């Protein structure tokens, strides 16, 4: 009999999926009425513990629901386990780090902080709490200050603990209260200045160490284990370590594998079974051999490898997908990967001619600017579509753009070419405020799992192919990386500098110790020739 894994429950009236579980019998009396915060999508669901715990997964899509349920279920199991093992003692550094996350939460509103009087009043309340004058206790200043601190900041401390699923002892709670008090005093002062148009960087922001979330590996379930069970456990463990796109991409491979092996015990699978599935994927599901080798088999092997290790609690005895791949015919490159001169002109002219789109303005902005930005930076289109207004700034005297979300996971700063500046990009970015330049977060639906920048990147490809006649062998988005590197070579820009600008990883160990400065990159960018599309 297969192991019964927790599954999302669908509300018959709203058709929205929920996490719905009975509170363990040994904890229900102790925890009834307490609050637990569970990660759901990009946010949290706050629910009270009763005989049952139920939280909306905020989607009616079953695939999205299953992915969100796995993450929320892992957090809930961690919550039960922490209450069983007893309270944790926070170190002084941990209390400061946890309070720092609250500082960061409040600091995010500095773009629109409201009126100064709001923060002046908040600062006065903070001062009264520190002095103890906000309470009616007299004759014992220490007690008055302690009670005032708990009254003013206790809800914030409890929120942080609930969000992290932490159960702490009384001393740690008091330590956290003091850290929260300091953090709120700091961020209130910062927001008061911002409300008065003073955006001088706050030195206090550097005082908080990074909060390290504790990790609890999933426990090995008893009974028959299926492919779905292993993937669910892996998803829960990796939820805060990988992007939603990666989990979604792996999920497609595992759904196909689970359907092929039809509920077989995962430890009974042999390399022959995985190879048979790969052939089925190619012959019956019409997936290309290259995609199977570089996506499907990579995904399955990675998850199974995790399941054989300590982090995966040795759910599997061996990895039947290790070193498997299908034979591929010799790839024939039918043309160069760079844009040809006439293709460059056609694409950049199309971008210049892209009309405004009043019903979806950011789509029009992406068509107008992203091809030109790619042409002058060699950046991946998804890096450009992910730009925020706050990412476009001036460092020293150099206008730059910060790529925070990259394929490699390594952020980088790239100088803007003088032609881009002359075309008005800086003015455009400033006019858009600090938010996303090329997508609108308010247009996202609850079903969206793919990053909005990735979605916009794909839409640009479709638009270009519809608008401009391009060779089928040419990749419109990626072609700019090859084109930029080639033109950089023509004007003798050092390879190390061009790698830093485009975000290419260096293969030479000695170069990993070199970090080109913004000035060095700006000097190189000044040599990069203008595109003439007249």
UniProtKB/TrEMBL annotation:
It comes from Lichenibacterium ramalinae. Residues 334-526 form the Tyr recombinase domain. Residues 225-308 form the Core-binding (CB) domain. Keywords: DNA integration, DNA recombination, DNA-binding. The lineage of its organism: Bacteria, Pseudomonadati, Pseudomonadota, Alphaproteobacteria, Hyphomicrobiales. The keyword Zinc does not apply. GO terms for biological process: DNA integration; DNA recombination. This is Integrase. The keyword Kinase does not apply. SUPFAM superfamilies: DNA breaking-rejoining enzymes. Belongs to the 'phage' integrase family. GO terms for molecular function: DNA binding. It comes from the Bacteria.
């Amino acid at each position: 009999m297969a192991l019964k894994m927790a599954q999302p429950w669908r509300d018959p009236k709203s058709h929205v999926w929920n996490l719905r579980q009975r509170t363990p019998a040994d904890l229900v009396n102790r925890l009834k009425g307490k609050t637990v915060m569970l990660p759901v999508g990009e946010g949290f669901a706050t629910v009270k513990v009763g005989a049952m715990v139920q939280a909306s997964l905020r989607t009616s899509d079953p695939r999205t629901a299953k992915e969100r349920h796995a993450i929320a279920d892992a957090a809930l199991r961690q919550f039960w386990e922490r209450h069983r093992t007893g309270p944790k003692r926070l170190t002084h550094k941990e209390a400061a780090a946890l309070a720092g996350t609250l500082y960061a939460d409040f600091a995010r509103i500095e773009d629109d902080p409201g009126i100064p009087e709001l923060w002046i009043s908040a600062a006065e309340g903070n001062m009264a709490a520190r002095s103890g004058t906000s309470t009616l206790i007299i004759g014992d200043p220490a007690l008055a200050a302690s009670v005032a601190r708990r009254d003013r900041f206790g809800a914030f401390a409890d929120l942080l603990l609930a969000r992290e699923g932490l159960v702490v002892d009384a001393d740690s709670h008091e330590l956290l209260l003091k850290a929260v008090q300091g953090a709120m005093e700091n961020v209130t002062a910062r927001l008061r200045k911002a409300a008065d148009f003073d955006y001088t960087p706050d030195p206090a922001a550097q005082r908080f160490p990074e909060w390290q979330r504790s990790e609890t590996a999933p426990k090995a379930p008893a009974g028959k284990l299926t492919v779905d069970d292993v993937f669910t456990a892996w998803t829960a463990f990796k939820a805060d370590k990988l992007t939603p796109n990666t989990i979604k991409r792996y999920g497609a491979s595992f759904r196909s594998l689970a359907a092929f092996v039809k509920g077989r015990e995962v430890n009974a699978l042999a390399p022959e079974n995985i190879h048979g599935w790969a052939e089925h994927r190619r012959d019956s599901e019409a997936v290309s051999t290259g995609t199977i080798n570089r996506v499907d088999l990579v995904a399955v092997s990675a998850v199974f490898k995790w399941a054989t290790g300590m982090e995966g609690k040795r759910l599997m005895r061996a990895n039947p997908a290790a070193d498997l791949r299908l034979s591929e015919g010799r790839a024939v490159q039918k043309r160069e990967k760079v844009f040809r001169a006439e293709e460059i002109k056609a694409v950049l002219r199309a971008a210049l001619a892209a009309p405004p789109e009043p019903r979806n303005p950011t789509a029009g902005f992406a068509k107008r600017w992203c091809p030109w930005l790619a042409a002058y930076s060699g950046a991946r289109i998804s890096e450009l579509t992910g730009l925020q207004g706050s990412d476009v700034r001036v460092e020293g005297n150099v206008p730059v753009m910060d790529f925070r979300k990259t394929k490699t996971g390594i952020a980088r700063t790239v100088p803007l070419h003088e032609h881009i500046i002359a075309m008005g990009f800086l003015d455009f970015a400033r006019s858009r405020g600090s938010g996303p330049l090329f997508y609108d977060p308010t247009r996202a639906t609850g079903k969206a799992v793919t990053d909005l920048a990735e979605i916009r990147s794909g839409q640009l490809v479709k638009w270009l192919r519809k608008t401009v006649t391009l060779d089928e062998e040419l990749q419109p988005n990626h072609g700019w990386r090859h084109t930029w590197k080639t033109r950089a070579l023509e004007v003798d820009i050092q390879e190390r500098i061009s790698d830093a600008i485009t975000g290419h990883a260096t293969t030479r160990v000695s170069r990993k110790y070199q970090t080109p400065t913004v000035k060095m990159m700006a000097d190189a960018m000044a040599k990069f020739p203008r595109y003439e599309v007249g």
